[in-house]
Amino acid sequence: MNEKLIKYISEQLLNNELEDDLEAEDDLLGDGILDSLGMMKLILYIETEYEMKVPPQDMIIENFMTVQHISNYLAKQRS
Amino acid sequence: MEFKDKMIYTLPNCIENSARLFPNKEAFRCGNASLSFQELDIKTNQLAKHLVDSGIQKGDRIGIYMNRCIETSIAIYGILKAGAVYVPIDPISPRTRTKFLIENCGIQFLITVPKQKKRVAKLLIEDISLKQVIGFSDDSDIKHFSWESIFSITLESYQRVNILSEDMAYIIFTSGSTGDPKGIMHTHKSGLAYAQLSASLYKLRPQDRVANHAPLHFDISTFGYFSAPYAGATTVIIPDAPISLPVSLGALIAEEKISIWYSVPLALSQLLLSGVLDQHDYSAIRWVLFAGENFTLKYLKGIMEKWPQAKYSNVYGPTEVNQCTFYNFNAKEIFKDYVPIGDVWDNTEYKIIDEDDKEVHKGETGQLLIRSSTMMLGYWNNKELTEKSIYKQQISNNLEQVYYRTGDLVRQDNLDRLVFLGRKDRQVKVRGYRIELDEIEAVLNDHPSIKECTVCVLEKDNDQKILTAAIILTLGASTETNELITHCRSKLPTYAVPQRIDVLKNFPRTSSGKIDLTQIRKTLISL
Q1: What is the CA radius of gyration of chain A?
Q2: Domain boundaries, given as residue ranges, for chain A
């Protein structure tokens, strides 16, 4: 799941060139990797790709800080 | 508030004064980090001493290379106390721009935080003239100093630098519509004038908790960094993470009991659309200030319904003059077509002029000129542009008054309120007709299926000008562009109806959240 998300973020959402490849532990929010609109796009992608709905109350830092956080969240939702 | 013993005429005086009056009161907080006025006063003295001991001279430019964090407040006031000039550099901006700023300003000292270590290292590989990095220790060729080493400096031999109100304090760079970024120079006087006027207009009190949403390189941040400390209020610096997640941001606003909010309209629209405003108690909010873009009326109305107890202020002012007009209203106010920018505030006057620099008749549209105590010193390294941006009113042979040409079109409505009509360069001529792009946007935004839109003129190689609208539809809307054209036809003259409407998933943005017009043009041309 991580690779798929990393691929999508790297190819579709980056505002600026990244110095290194994106890693699952990179802070997506605190390091300027994703802005608020990038985050909305990512959530839309997750909803279509994984055929699920991310309710607004789940769109929080604890679930979306890193790719790893997102994967954990998705795993929990789908189990 | 009274300031009996000491006069306040520089920006650091604000901190020193509040440290005297409220030493233990929280001045800044960000996440779990917090600084009282006294701590801030001491830490900024330590930084200032270090800078002066390292050879910093009055007027030297020093870069602040930081994300949103508590250290921003120490950097700003430490630099100012050293008599130097702070230049915010957005760490997320492309390296070419960072390099340009450093070279253009002759920056030799960079103040940063450990989080930016990687980026700083990459910067240092480039051929730039940095002599010192403050923020973390490192073994590279140039000198590094950690924050810990700064905070262990003793202040016994510290001598305050003599700063005058006319001395330069900071340079904020904005992207010029063409070519290189423009550096807007402000003095202690113009920055402090802004702090005092805004503190007085919004009746800032020590009990206030002011949210700072804007990054340092965006001048809205001067409210949180200057005005709030001037009034002894607490500034809550919103960390980066909640900025991207409206639900978390909404929770933070409630948790921090924010009493004054100031941001671009976009941040408020996103809060509204996320639904978070129904989940928490926001009764502490007493002022909502917004600036930078027109607030789409349907979203403004939405916010006013959610926060009925708050007062609202439509703030207007190019970075060159900080803020200069305001329109204050309460949640009951009804707007039909527009929210006025109101009237100029204290110590400020204006004129509205036509293409020939003649004053227009009342009610006519023209360019707004501003004369104010909050006026910039000029553009950094660009005398020519400074001259061009100024309008001089001859009073007598040897006396003239200087106005800033805002480049913004305004008119007075029948209640004598100023109405913002758009950038002078947003007024275009297509087939000989003068068209206000912002007016078309307002009409499009009226349509329920449109979430956001922007209108521009695309030029094809054969000089053909095509009035083009880029839109984002609201979630689930399946409106055909034909219907939108019909909608425009019903409200606009034929020549102002977009010839082309492109539906996009989202818009490119500048780091301050505004729509990136240059980028969007490129996108549209490539479609």
Answers
A1: 12
A2: 2-78
Q: How many CB pairs under 8 A join A and B?
A: 70
CA distances from B202 to B29, B196, B310, B419, B508 (A): 21, 10, 12, 21, 33
| Phi/psi at B173 (5° precision) | -95, 130
Residues in B touching A34 (Cβ below 8 Å): 244
Give the largest Cα separation in chain B, rounded: 74
Which residues of B are less than 8 Å from A57 in CB distance?
247, 279
**Tens digit of pLDDT per residue, chain B (527 long)?**
554 568 999 999 999 999 999 999 999 999 999 999 999 999 999 999 999 999 999 999 999 999 999 999 999 999 999 999 999 999 888 788 899 999 999 999 999 999 999 889 989 988 778 999 999 998 777 899 999 999 999 999 999 999 999 999 999 998 654 457 899 999 999 999 999 999 999 999 999 999 999 999 999 999 999 999 999 999 999 999 999 899 999 999 999 999 999 999 989 999 999 899 999 999 999 999 999 888 989 999 999 999 999 999 999 999 999 999 999 999 999 998 899 999 999 999 999 999 899 999 999 999 999 999 999 999 999 999 999 999 999 999 999 999 999 999 999 999 999 999 888 878 787 777 778 888 889 889 889 899 999 999 888 766 678 899 999 998 888 888 889 998 998 888 888 899 999 999 888 887 767 788 888 888 888 87
CA angle B35, B38, B43 (to 5 degrees): 70
**Is B247 close to A57, i.e. CB distance below 8 A?**
yes
Q: What are phi and psi of B234, to 5 degrees?
A: -95, 130
The conformation of residue B302, written as its DSSP 8-state character, comes to: H
* Class for the domain spanning B11-244: alpha beta
Sign of CA dihedral B188, B192, B193, B195: positive
ipTM of this predicted complex?
Answer: 0.86
Out of B67, B244, B267, closest to residue A34 by CB: B244
| Boundaries of every domain in chain B | 11-244, 346-421, 431-526
Reading the block at residue B54, the tokens are 């390292």
From the CA of B506, how many Å to the nearest CA of chain A? 8
Q: Chain A closest CA to B339's CA: distance in Å?
A: 26
Top-level class of domain B431-526: alpha beta
Q: Does B474 touch chain A (CB under 8 A)?
A: no
What is the CATH topology of the domain spanning B346-421?
Luciferase; domain 3 (2.30.38)
Closest CB from A19, A20, A59 relative to B245: A59
- Most A CBs within 10 Å, among B244, B255, B279, B475, to test the A interface: B244
Quick one: DSSP state of residue B277?
G
Buried b (16+ CB within 10 A) or exposed e, B415-434: eebbbbbbbeebbbeeeeee
Nearest chain B Cα distance for residue A79, angstroms: 24
Q: What are phi and psi of B408, to 5 degrees?
A: -105, 140
Helix and strand counts by DSSP (H, E) for chain B: 17, 27
Name the DSSP class of B359: B
CATH superfamily of A2-78: ACP-like (1.10.1200.10)
Contacts of B267 in chain A (CB under 8 A): 36
